[in-house]
Structures are given as structure tokens and as C-alpha cells.
């Protein structure tokens, strides 16, 4: 059973629908015991890292996720889930889970746009590419030309390049796929990225981290 | 680099697409779920469903359509038409839509934008605008006025001011429909699209007037739109999404290849 962590950060049903479409069993839960006992754990999310972390602590989910990380259970963060695994986020100066050293930073809307006409639109919303900088089992079958769907104003900045697996260009080059041991996370929405998104999600459902 | 989005728009009445679509092999389909699947497979970047069901009682049929679409396609889609309250928004989003579009309800009650943005996040709220060119006059400094009821009712609101107000209230995106260009297949309203795009900091979807791939190329470059809505040019099989994207690629416009 795959546990999809409910920490009040919306859009869990679309992830559950994608997992079900791939014929894997999943349950949306905020029960720490069910999460630490799951075969795999996904923590999606939209919204703000600060309020996400607050809800996590209220429900005791931060400790559950840290336990899952330690136990070597495959875990996947999506969007805000890719930011709260850092030490902290610039968003409300929130302290986060600290699984990957570094922080989450904000795009600046005073940066020039990609087309040289005015300023960068924030949030970064729409389809963008992925440059794989380090191979990973979850990237198996992903093509160079594949694009993924993004909606975010913050992005992860790992302290070590060793934790970065993919990057994307939007005004700057940022880490859009990060990971460490049994943890992998994408800033883009796997559940809204068509076939390449479903492919990575399916790879996760079969992933056996060593 | 972010790709420009190509977005087919489907009009749905009481659970059926109003015109159906005729593909190149001349098969007609009026089932919105089948059509969504077709466009998903064909490389659409996003879909827009516009519910033109007349009565409030039949809204549940649309919610059922949304639920089925969400189980079938895995790209973002928005739903507009008849969204009047926070509860209407919630129902559509819970059924699986990524975004919800408000148009005349927001004109009458702008607070629905901020309420929706607070409850679901700015990225969920699209401000749909129907606009007509009326020329510069008192109260309409941009020369473009907001209309409702399919262009029959003039609201005395300036289109540019309304776009900026919508952004300030928390809209995450604007779907800008020119009533003058709509249905003409003569191209998008270029001056309007460019004026709005240059003066807001949220994405603008150009709508109304698409007839050829050249029209899309134009509005995505000169018009500075972030996305282009298309309808009859693909519904009747005149062009495929693949053909449109190949044309745009050839013009050095970045689009997603699938």
C-alpha cells in the first residue's frame, strides 16, 4: 500500500487518481502509524511551505516522515513536497524537515523575462523541460525532449550538487529534481505532466532503493 | 524555457459537447470525456471546459463529466461557465479540475476572486474576460470594455483596469476573449492581447478568432500571450495539434512536443 500524506496542502486526489490509474493501491491519510507502516510514501502539495509545515507538526507527520526516511522506505515529494525536505524555506522563514541540506528560495519578479520583454512572471506556471544531470532509477525511460508541468513560486536549493538530479531553466537554472538515499522529489507535478509524469510515478511505484 | 501552451476549448451542454467534433477520419464525437482523451493523446497542453448548461439543477451532470475527465487525462484542465459561488468552485476542483474560471460572476461580485484565491490558491483561479472594442471614452480609457451575456450587456468597465484589479484580487491567470474576433477565424485581437499581457504579471491566454497556425504564432509573439485557446480549427479536423505545434516550432516558438 502506498500512503499519500494528507497535510492540508490540497490536490491529493489528483495524485491518488494517477496512482490508481497505474493500478497501484493507495490511501490518503494523516495517520502517522499508517504512514510509517506503508510500503511507499508520497507527499504532494500545493500552497505555502510555512503552513504545510505547521499542519505537519500539528498532526505529528513531520516525525513520521523523518522515521520513514531513516527506515529506508521509498518516499516521493511533489511540488511543495520538494521544498519542505530542505532545512528551511524562505517562505515565512519556515523551518522544514531537514532531509536534504539547503533551503527553498523564491523566484524574483524583478528578473527579466525569458523573451526579453518585461519581467519574469511569477509563479512559474506551465510546461518546461528537465535536464537530467545525474541518472536515477526514477528517470528510466524519460526522454531528453520530455516536458513537465510546473506551478510554483519557490524552488529548492540543495547545498550539495550531489543531491541534484535534474535542473530546469526559468530566468535562472534551478534544481527541479532532488534526492538522497530513499528519498526523491520533483518540483513539477508528476500527476499533471501527461505520460512522462506517469512514467516517473510508475518508476517510483516499483523503485527499490539500495 | 517555458513552453507556450496550446489549449483546446470544449463547450459542454448537459453533459454533451455542443457541436461534437469531426476528426480527420470524419468520425463525430460528442462525448466530452472521449474528446478530452483524444486531445490529451494528441498533445494538448491543457484543456478548457465551458459549461453552457442553462439550469442550475443540471450542474451535477457537469461535475460528473469533470470527475470522469480527471480519471482519464493527466494534464491540467479548467472549468468555467456558471461558477457563481465558492461552493461552485469547490465542487469543480474537488471533482478533479486544476483550475476554475470565473467571468460574469466576478464582474458582479469581484470578491469571488479573492475568496477563491484564499481558499484554493491563486493558481486555481482564472479570470475569464469577455471584451469588446468601443473606442476611448469616459470611463473606458483603454478603448476596450467588459461585456457579459455573450457581448449583449456592456458593463461600463475598462478591460485593462479590470485585468489589473483581477490580478490584485488574486487571479492566477487571465483568459482574454475578444467578442469582436470570436468566431471570425480572422485571427486574435492583437492590440487587446498585447495591451493586457504587457500590463499584468500573470499569464494571459488569448481567446477568440483563431483560424490558422499563423494566427497562433502571431498572438504568441507580437501579442505576447502565454497561451492560445483554439476551438473550431481543431474540432472540425482542419488542423491537428501536432500540425499547429510543428508550425510554431518552425517559427522558433517553444512548444511542448509529445
UniProtKB/TrEMBL annotation, chain A:
Q: Provide the GO MF annotations for this entry.
A: glutaminase activity; imidazoleglycerol-phosphate synthase activity; lyase activity
Entry-linked SUPFAM superfamilies: Class I glutamine amidotransferase-like
Annotated Glutamine amidotransferase domain residues: 4-204
* Positions annotated as active site in the UniProt record: 79 (nucleophile), 189, 191
Per the UniProt entry, the Enzyme Commission number(s) are 4.3.2.10, 3.5.1.2
Q: Does the keyword Lyase apply?
A: yes
Keywords tagged on the record: Amino-acid biosynthesis, Cytoplasm, Glutamine amidotransferase, Histidine biosynthesis, Hydrolase, Lyase
Which InterPro entries does the record cross-reference, listed alphabetically? Class_I_gatase-like, GATASE, Imidazole-glycPsynth_HisH
Q: In which pathway does it act?
A: Amino-acid biosynthesis; L-histidine biosynthesis; L-histidine from 5-phospho-alpha-D-ribose 1-diphosphate: step 5/9
- Asked if the keyword Cytoplasm belongs to this entry, the reply reads yes
Q: Which PANTHER family does the record match to this protein?
A: IMIDAZOLE GLYCEROL PHOSPHATE SYNTHASE SUBUNIT HISH (PTHR42701:SF1)
Assembly with partners or alone? Heterodimer of HisH and HisF.
What is this protein's function?
A: IGPS catalyzes the conversion of PRFAR and glutamine to IGP, AICAR and glutamate. The HisH subunit catalyzes the hydrolysis of glutamine to glutamate and ammonia as part of the synthesis of IGP and AICAR. The resulting ammonia molecule is channeled to the active site of HisF.
Stored NCBIfam families: IMP_synth_hisH (TIGR01855)
> Which named protein is this?
Imidazole glycerol phosphate synthase subunit HisH
Q: What is the lineage of its organism?
A: Bacteria, Pseudomonadati, Thermodesulfobacteriota, Desulfobacteria, Desulfobacterales
UniProtKB/TrEMBL annotation, chain B:
Q: Which gene encodes it?
A: hisF
Query: Quick one: where is this thing mainly located?
Result: cytoplasm
GO cellular component terms, A-Z: cytoplasm
Write the lineage as a comma-separated list. Bacteria, Pseudomonadati, Thermodesulfobacteriota, Desulfobacteria, Desulfobacterales
User: What is this protein called in UniProt?
Assistant: Imidazole glycerol phosphate synthase subunit HisF
Q: Which domain of life is it from?
A: Bacteria
Q: Where in the cell is it found?
A: Cytoplasm
Task: Report the active site residues.
Answer: 11, 130
Role noted for this protein = IGPS catalyzes the conversion of PRFAR and glutamine to IGP, AICAR and glutamate. The HisF subunit catalyzes the cyclization activity that produces IGP and AICAR from PRFAR using the ammonia provided by the HisH subunit.
- Cited Gene3D superfamilies: Aldolase class I (3.20.20.70)
What protein family does this chain belong to?
Belongs to the HisA/HisF family.
User: What is the species of this protein?
Assistant: Desulfocicer vacuolatum DSM 3385
Which GO molecular function entries does the Swiss-Prot or TrEMBL record give?
imidazoleglycerol-phosphate synthase activity; lyase activity
Q: Does the keyword Kinase apply?
A: no
